[in-house]
TrEMBL record:
Keywords: ATP-binding, Cytoplasm, Kinase, Nucleotide biosynthesis, Nucleotide-binding, Transferase
UniProt main location, coarse: cytoplasm
Family: Belongs to the adenylate kinase family.
Annotated source species: Mucilaginibacter gilvus
One GO cellular component term: cytoplasm
Subunit details: Monomer.
Protein's name according to its UniProt entry: Adenylate kinase
EC nos: 2.7.4.3
Pathway the protein contributes to: Purine metabolism; AMP biosynthesis via salvage pathway; AMP from ADP: step 1/1
Length: 191
């Protein structure tokens, strides 16, 4: 199985690159942000609770996203592999993901981190906010809070995979195609 963690701050291009990877490798895309937005659209209780935190730029509790990922892994038993996008976002989530995959005789193949500086991220998110309709993309204060949550809680997840020799970082600034080429060269060495 090819199990990729696509890593990086909000606005790094994880969603864009995920779409291209799905097409090329036939992987199942698991974006906890998309799954949470789906819950909000359906008006579930989980969605209502998550929305308050998301609109404020804060992470939702680990147990919520771990539960969603566990359900998706169970629902896709015959998958060739998965792209984890926006998950894991804390070390506790990374540990839980390892256990979930281990129970299915599987493991993460590699984490690929997209590196983009904070000024570029803010620009990209504000631009995306004009068309995404996402409240958390529209407000510069919320954007800065999301980047701070990333630096405080999510950046340490890189160390977790470095400890397993599964971490690679690439430059996330440039054309979509060039970045995709870099991602493919990483995958070629881990596949
Ligand atoms: P994203 O679409 O990945 O930018 O996520 C949007 C928002 O959903 C984040 O700012 C968080 O509030 C929430 N979220 C998404 N994934 C996670 C996660 N793995 N852990 C905690 N909160 C998450």
């Amino acid at each position: 199985m090819l199990n990729l963690v696509l890593f990086g701050p909000p606005g790094a291009g994880k969603g864009t690159q995920s779409q291209k990877l799905i097409e090329k490798f036939g992987l199942i895309h698991l974006s906890t942000g998309d799954l949470l937005r789906g819950e909000i659209t359906q008006g579930t209780e989980l969605g209502l609770e998550a929305k308050k935190l998301m609109d404020d730029g804060k992470l939702v509790p680990d147990a919520v996203v771990i539960g969603m990922i566990s359900n998706k892994l169970d629902a896709n038993k015959d998958a060739k592999g998965f792209i984890f996008d926006g998950f894991p976002r804390t070390v506790a989530q990374a540990e839980a993901l390892d256990s979930l995959l281990l129970s299915k005789q599987s493991a993460i193949s590699v984490m690929i981190a997209l590196e983009v500086n904070d000024a570029e991220l803010e620009q990209r998110l504000l631009l995306r906010g004009k068309s995404s309709g996402r409240l958390d993309d529209a407000n510069p204060e919320v954007i800065r809070k999301r980047i701070k949550e990333y630096n405080d809680k999510t950046a340490p997840v890189a160390g977790f995979y470095q400890g397993q020799n599964k971490y690679t970082s690439i430059n996330g600034i440039g054309s979509v195609e060039d970045i995709f080429t870099s991602i493919n060269s990483v995958i070629a060495t881990y596949k």
